[in-house]
Write a structure and sequence with these properties.
This protein has 219 residues and is an alpha/beta fold. 47% of the residues lie in helices and 16% in strands. The protein has helices at residues 24-35, 42-51, 55-65, 72-83, 101-110, 123-131, 145-148, 169-183, 185-192, 205-217, and strands at residues 12-18, 39-41, 91-95, 115-120, 133-136, 142-144, 161-162, 196-200. The strands form two sheets. The protein has a five-stranded parallel sheet with strand order 2-3-1-4-8, sandwiched between helices. Strands 6-5-7 form a three-stranded antiparallel sheet. A hairpin with a 5-residue loop joins strand 5 and strand 6. Helix 6 runs antiparallel to helix 8 (169-183). Bound molecules: zinc ion.
Length: 219
Amino acid sequence: MGTPTPEIGEKMKIVLLGAPGAGKGTQAVKIAEKYNIPHISTGDIFRKNIKEQTPIGVIAKSYIDKGNLVPDDVTIEIVKNRLAEDDCKKGFILDGFPRNVYQAEALLNITELNVVLDIHVPTENLMARLTGRRVCSGCGESYHVTTLEGRNTCARCGENLYQRDDDNEQTVAERLAVYHKQTEPLIEFYKAKALLKTVNGDQDADAVTAEVLNVLERL
Ligand SMILES: [Zn+2]
């Protein structure tokens, strides 16, 4: 009683989950545009902190330079700093964080969340998606071999397509194994907190977006 209904943007504190190849990045961009909230990709904020030589960026770089993984607490600090910025007040979409239950526990101490979206694609389809992916060397557009019909140039800009080093079968298998071990437990974690909504990622990107927006409108 008396509590004003929040505007849509105020209840858009979103975590996006999904295996490598599930199309998480594409959906994050669409959601961010639709609701005018920042898309926070951990890769991007790492690069920014390192480039600007922030204290936490310098620490992160010291691990990366030695070829080591950045410890959870450093990653958590970087995300915490980013979420404290003004543009996150009415919402955000987190992409690539949390990656494990330890990070998820820490995130709950930093901010409330409104929803965790899991873009689900069956594992056997992820392998085919990733190993068949070809990327444009000019504009970065992604294609799949099944739709290229033998072409090897970009429909948008005409540059050559290539296969990313980490899209070979062995590396993909390793990336999926890491995901299953570390990140999949998050699905149970968020389900137990009644925050999880699963979206069928095994359809074309526009259909996934429609389903995602439908879920968000009903929050
Ligand atoms: Zn291109």
